Structure formats: C-alpha cells, structure tokens
Amino acid sequence: MKTQNQKGWLFVLPVLILVAFNALIPLMTVVNYSVQETFGNNLFFWQGLDWFEQVLRSERFHGALGRQAMFTGIILAVEIPLGVAIALAMPRSGPWVSVCLVLMALPLLIPWNVVGAMWNIFTLPDIGLAGYTLNTVLGIDYDMTQSPFAAWATIITMDVWHWTSLVVLLAYAGIISIPDAYYQAAKIDGASSWAVFRHIQLPKMKRVLTIAVLLRFMDSFNIYTEPFVLTGGGPGNSTTLLSIDLVKTALGQFDLGPAAAMSLIYFAVTLLVSWLFYTIMMRDEE
C-alpha cells in the first residue's frame, strides 16, 4: 500500500502558525470584552451574557442588521448576473482578450478608501461630474447628503463598479475552461444559446460561481470603508450599515462590551450564512 508523503505540510506550517496567531489573539480579546465590563486602568468586572442580550434586544442593532442584509442582497442580485453576462460577452481568443482582462482588473487595483473618496467627489451635487450632470443637465433632484434613496443608489452603484470585475474574472475563467467538444456537440444537436448556457456553461461555472458568491457575500456583508468615506452612514442613519454601527459603538461611544458582543454576533451570522450558501450551491456536486 502506497503511503502519502506529508512533509509538504512543513512548508505551510509557519504560515498556519502566523495566521492562527494573528486571528486567535484578537478573537480571544473580543470574547474577553464581550463578557466583562471595564472602566479603564485594566480593571474588569464580570458581566456574563448581558451584553449579548442587550444587543439582541436592541432596535438599533436590528435596524443596522436589516440595512446590511438589504445591501448585501441587492449587491448579490446585481453583481452575480451582471458579471456572468459580461464574461459571456467577452472574446475568448485574439488580442482583445488581454485588453478586456486588463480593463476588468483595473477597478480591483484601487484601494477601498480611495474608491470612497473618488465617488464622494464624483457625486457632489455642485462640482461632481455625476452630481452636476444629474442635477443640471438631466434635471434630476440628486443629493446623496439629503436623500436616503440617492445615498443608497450611490453606494450600490459604487460597489457594483468596484467589485463586479471580480465576478467577471472568475466567471470568465470558468467559461474558457470548458472544452470545445461540448460546444461542437451542442451545435450538432441544434441547441439554442440559452440551452448552451443552461446545460453547458452554467454547470461548468458552478464552482467558480460558488467562490464568487461567497467572496461577494463576505465582502459586502462586512463592507465598511467605502460607504463610510462616501456617506458616513447618512443622511441620518439611512446608510448606517452594521459594520459602521459597530465602529461607532466601539470607538465613538467607547462601549467596548456591547461592541464586542455585537462583533461576535456579526461574525457568527457571517459564518452561518456563508456555510448555508456553500451547502446549497454544492449539494449536488457529489
């Protein structure tokens, strides 16, 4: 019986130790704050699960969680189909392939805080190109600092512009990996474009689309920098997502106990939904 050589794990062991160190210590610190109260000077008082109960009963938490879930749902509903459609329209051979891939990758190279600042300037109602065009040229009353609908439309458009490219690149990688024999057989059978997509391309893209959905869910559900730089959570609390509310609780109000409990609940929700996504999308894989 042939035995497997496990020495390869020695090469990745330092990375695993480093990642575990960087992840476990902050996590245990958050757990410590979530069950205790502190007034500074490194003095802690046992609080138990009171912070968790307070957070779960809070209407503020429910509102922020609802806004976060709505934002993530809209992002997934827009970016996944749009990314697949763009990937299908891209050329699969010739010099234009490189051009399209570079153009698709450009938004992903821009840092998150720069994206928020760019769109903030771009959408200013008086001097921003988009804001001036919508208000003056098209006659649309647009001001994201005053209108919750305009603020939501802006942060969604910004995220779609920034991250749809990731879905495009993943979907395109799945499409070009499909052997030509499948297309030749479909052509002989007289299959329509929709039939080719449904029975050949979509099943072959299942794995990459699973990765795309998981990445976009986790990124959008934990997004902070772009909407904070763009709207600051306003106008009012209309765009105060759960991530923004968590930072306000921890740093703005310095309520470390409730903030720690909220972050653990946030973490648990992210893990649970990611697991559900993966289970549902991969249930027929075996």
Can you tag this structure with a few keywords?
MetI-like fold, globular, mainly alpha, 286 residues, 2 strands, 72% helix
Given helix and strand content, the structural type is mainly alpha
CATH topology: MetI-like fold
Largest sheet: 2 strands, antiparallel
Second rung of CATH, namely the architecture: Orthogonal Bundle
Cross-sheet strand order for the largest sheet: 1-2
Q: Could you estimate the helical fraction of the residues in percent?
A: over 70%
Number of strands: 2
Assembly category: single chain
Protein architecture, described:
The protein is mainly α and 286 residues long. The protein has one domain: Orthogonal Bundle (MetI-like fold). Helices cover 72% and strands 2% of the residues. The chain contains 13 helices and two strands, in the order H-E-E-H-H-H-H-H-H-H-H-H-H-H-H. The chain has a two-stranded antiparallel ribbon. Helix 3 (59-89) runs antiparallel to helix 10. The protein is globular, with a radius of gyration of 23 Å.
What is the structure about, briefly put?
With 286 residues, the chain is mainly alpha-helical. It contains 13 helices and 2 strands.
Summarize the topology.
Layout: H1 9-34, E1 36-38, E2 44-46, H2 50-57, H3 59-89, H4 96-105, H5 112-122, H6 129-137, H7 148-176, H8 180-188, H9 193-204, H10 206-221, H11 225-231, H12 242-252, H13 256-281
Antiparallel strand pairs: 1-2
Helix pairs in contact: 1-13, 2-13, 3-7, 3-10, 5-11, 7-10, 7-11, 10-13, 12-13
